[in-house]
What we know:
Elements: H1 2-14, H2 21-32, H3 36-44, H4 51-61, H5 65-69
Helix pairs in contact: 2-4
Amino acid sequence: MIFRARMEELIHLAFPKAENDTARIKALAKRSGVGAETIRGAMKGERNPTLTVLEQIAAGLGVSLSQLLSAAPIDHLPSATHRPKPEGSRPQ
């Protein structure tokens, strides 16, 4: 459940204005291009995301894959305008 704790930490930093966890997961899904159910399942330990999916989630959170998988604390995330786009995402 280390991954769940890390995801909860980062998702709260990435989406501080979201009303609840469901809204945060939906916002991350939109930003990362990964389905909300996939994100929710990974957080609960019910799904095993591929490295590609983890990279997309990390990009959606504005962190590197190594930061997503690390236990090192993160105090803040870069602003949304400086976050990397997930690979394969279309320009808007």
